Amino acid sequence: MSVKYVPVIWNRTKFAYDAVVLAMIGTYLGLYLYIAPAFQSVTKPIDGHIYWAQAFGSCVFLLLTVILCVGPLARLDKRFLPLLYNRRHLGVMTCVLALFHVSYVIDWYYAFSPINKYAAVLFSNTSYAEFLGFPFEILGLFALLILLVLACTSHDFWLHFLGPPTWKTLHMGIYFAYALVVGHVALGALQGAAGPLMSTVVVGSVALVVSLHLVAARKEKVTDTDSPPEDKEDTKWLDLGDPLSIPDKRALIVSIDESERVAVFRNGTKVSAISNVCAHQNGPLGEGKIVYGCVTCPWHGYQYRLEDGCSPPPFKEKIPTYRLRLEKGRLQLNPEALPAGTYVEPVQLSG
Amino acid sequence: MALKSAQAFFIGWAKKPPKGLRPFLWAISAVLIGAAAGVSFGLGVSVPDPGSGSFQWGAGYQVLEGVVESKPYPVLRVKPEAAGDTAKTILLSGVGKRGVQTRADPLDGQNVKVGGVMLERGSISMLQVGGKVQITPLDKPADSYTPQAAEDLGKWRLTGEICDGKCYSGAMRPGIGLAHKACANLCIIGGIPPVFVTTGAVQGTNFFLLADPAGNPVPEAIYDVVGRLVTLEGNVERRDDLLVFKADFATVKYNW
Question: Considering CB atoms only, which of A20, A83, A133 is closest to B227?
């Protein structure tokens, strides 16, 4: 959380996160470039530029796979949420590595020619009507453009400027970029330039990403179908049952319809309802916890007061609130959202 | 422990992650770094062999004498050093992705000396023309050389891949395949002689200098075929140890 824009807000967790990512990248590139060549069965070594391009390119593909697995893993098991916290840095690092890959390719395959090397990327292979032989470089180029846009707009300034829904939609472009990269690799490196293990790695990575998303989506669907029944006498109110069944400091997530969820938090003997959607990146507040008296988002730690949905000063984020009432010991929710920041007296439980 | 870590609530801006979560975070970091190491080593070790082709920098700058022939692409019919030596024909290219067609055309059929650096891969030899000598006509050849006439070997159906002769010879390793297609196209566009690399040996060789049916440079249409496994029909002729495949591109059949 911040009240002004700074290039990067560093904290201890981000340093640790980036250190692990850099260790992962350093290990990958170090082993690929300096150790593996000593164990290769080749008559003569692969050209340095081509080999470095392969190292950086394969590293980018694997990092994209990790990036796309983090989301569903965090949905399936909350212990993976720390991997989500600083995913933007991982994305920016992936984009930088992709630029290295491109520079090695362009300065080798497209160099030494009377034709401009950048123009040559577009015009040296025009077999667009073919499947095998298709200019796979174009797929990689489009993927790089998407990664650049995502990296450049990864800062919170763009999140606030575009608004979370637009920003989220834009950043869903990572899926399109991944599909383009898979096509780029399948029609390029896998057509003889890479060894058999690369095919296994690519197929395994794609299968992992797809299956994790399917499993996570199935889990979400089950949650969404658990809508509470309406009060038989007053259909404006939804019956949520015994309020003490909500774990202390935690929330019950209620699906109003397909696009709206409410987080009903119990803080000791007080119960309040706020939107389930964090104003920062639309994180699931209902999966958060009450820390220091505020609801804390599990994704990036944004905080909101229970009674009015406002972030504590000096922060200015606000989310909608909802009315609750107790009827014969049962908690009831009015599904009509109140404007963001509206004060609602918490329901007081006896005892 | 699993229950403890599942209940732990992580807050990014907190000084430390919750105690119950720390073993899991250490474990997942180790798994990610370990997986990076394993995949990296596996991929790096299993790269396909790019072949034996390379520049012969160790042999130094070469000056060869012989007769230059400019069609379909410039070649040098090298004059045997001694009587009884086997005659040899080598491909000629310029520096980078440039051919030497414009320099060879005016000297077609003449005795010349050519300077440059050799590239070799198996039975294929190419001279990258450059340096002081370039392609220079011999003003007064002591004993001018007349190579043997080309021998027609009849019609053949060959399966293989169209590559550019320079990268295949070792200017790039690997210099074949679809990942190299754009580079090969650039080379052929620049005038580097294209070659047809067959899947099996034919007449003792795996590569043929490629030409159109009339023995001229290949048409632009072949750019779509470069790098793919194809079958082509056409006449083959022998010029010393070099085979020229005058392929009819209308007969192209894709093998995959």
Answer: A133
Q: How many domains is chain A built from?
A: 2
| A43-99 residue pLDDT tens | 999 999 999 999 999 999 999 999 999 999 998 998 999 999 889 999 999 999 999
Within a domain: residue B227?
Answer: yes
Q: Are residues A179 and A243 in the same domain?
A: no
Both B250 and B155 in one domain: the answer is yes
Interatomic CA distance for residues B133 and B135, integer angstroms: 6
- Is B166 a domain residue? yes
Grouping H, G, I as helix, E, B as strand and the rest as coil, residue A259 is coil
Residues B173 and B237 in one domain: yes
Q: Is the pLDDT of residue B1 over 80?
A: no
Residue in B closest to A112 by C-alpha: B96
Question: A192 and A96 in one domain?
Answer: yes
With contacts defined as CB-CB under 8 Å, which chain A residues touch B49? 41-43
For range B224-240, the mean pLDDT: 96
More confident residue, B18 or A31: A31
Q: Are residue A156 and residue A51 in the same domain, yes or no?
A: yes
Chosen for mutation from A109, A110, A202, A285 (greatest number of chain B CBs closer than 10 Å) is A109
Q: A117-131: per-residue pLDDT in tens?
A: 999 999 999 999 999
What is the extent of the structural domain holding B165? 151-254
pLDDT value at residue A10: 82
Among B44, B250, B77, which Cα is nearest to A50's? B44
pLDDT per residue over B140-199, tens digit each?
766 788 999 999 999 999 999 999 999 999 999 999 999 999 999 999 999 999 999 999
User: Does A50 sit within 8 Å of B174, measured CB to CB?
Assistant: yes
Backbone angles phi, psi at B201, to 5 degrees: -70, 135
Q: How many Å apart are CA A227 and CA A261, to the nearest integer?
A: 10
pLDDT value for B236? 96
| β-strand partners of A147 | none
User: Are residues A247 and A213 part of one domain?
Assistant: no
- Spans of chain A below 50 pLDDT: none
The residue among A195, A223, A251 that closes a domain is A223
- Is residue B76 domain-resident? yes
Could B44 and A11 be called an inter-chain contact, meaning their C-beta atoms sit closer than 8 Å?
A: no
Which of A2, A22, A24 is best to mutate for the B interface (most B CBs within 10 A)? A24
Judging contacts by C-beta atoms under 8 Å, the chain B residues touching residue A110 are: 182-183, 186
List, in sequence order, every beta strand (DSSP E) within chain B.
54-55, 62-69, 75-78, 88-93, 111-121, 124-129, 135-137, 151-164, 194-202, 205-211, 229-239, 242-254
Same structural domain, A119 and A168:
yes
Among B46, B39, B177, B175, CA closest to A195: B46
* Percent of residues, chain B, with pLDDT higher than 70: 96
**Can you tell me the distance from the alpha carbon of B204 to that of B251, in angstroms, rounded to the nearest whole number?**
24
ipTM of the complex: 0.93
Q: Which of B80, B113, B137 is the last residue of a domain?
A: B137
Q: Which domain holds residue A159?
A: 12-223
Q: Is B29 inside a domain boundary?
A: no
Supply the mean pLDDT for chain B. 93
Q: Do A201 and B43 touch (CB under 8 A)?
A: yes
How many Å apart are CA A255 and CA A227, to the nearest integer?
Answer: 5
